[in-house]
Amino acid sequence: MSPFELAEPASLPEAIALLGIENARPLSGGTALMLMMKAGVLRPARLVSLRKLKLDEIRADGELRVGAMASLRALERSAQVKAGWPAITRALRTLSNVRVRNVATVGGALAHADPHMDLPPLFTALGARATITGPAGERSVPVDALYAGYLENTLARNELITHVTIPPMGKRRAAYLKCTTRSADDWPAVGIAVLIDGDNVRIVLGAATDRPTRLVAAERVLGGRADDPRALKEAAEAAAEEAEIEDDLHGSATYKKQLVRVYLQRTLHEARRPIH
Asked: Which of 18, 113, 156, 248 has the most neighbouring CB atoms within 10 Å?
């Protein structure tokens, strides 16, 4: 690992200023960043620790507000999240393992832009927005707008995700399911999130593509017919044809397309199951 400077700012403006040099990186949980540094993929001259910033609040007041420094484990164990957004709680139970979830943060998981992560497709389906702070102030973007490609986000060098807001569920229903090739907490070959809102269905594919991807053609097929078994099969076929999937270590494109067909139907059934 190359030598680096470690800065520990006490305020958000100070952190943003410290990120102004060309080869600086923010450090939140560090679960992915440290692995990449040890492998020599990243060689930052400065790490800017965010641990002293008060960005770990989880608050449900109509909408859900999650601070970027909230750990995945804190989000998983939140009673407010479980009561109001149960799909998030269920998804987190198999996101990596509990040791990682104890350290990894929500903001870091989103900013890392690894397409195999579980939260980006689920948050996209739920209509979540990320608030980003930089030298010019705050801006808010849909979570899917954070991604430009594999391990590429759209954040400027001196911008930070400060929190994520998720609309109330109301009568909407959601689910996220993934298929892993080994243990349940392994990187998925395919992950699918769905949101059912009356006659409208939102479908987001993860892992098989280089960023969270809305499956618009499949959504159109299901419009007003989400309870129709024939429509489910038609939508599954439309989803498999629509998604631009490439081979990787988790399976061939042909294999993943078949997973999309199967898991789309399973995820829709999961979303309609009674909540206990």
From this structure: 113
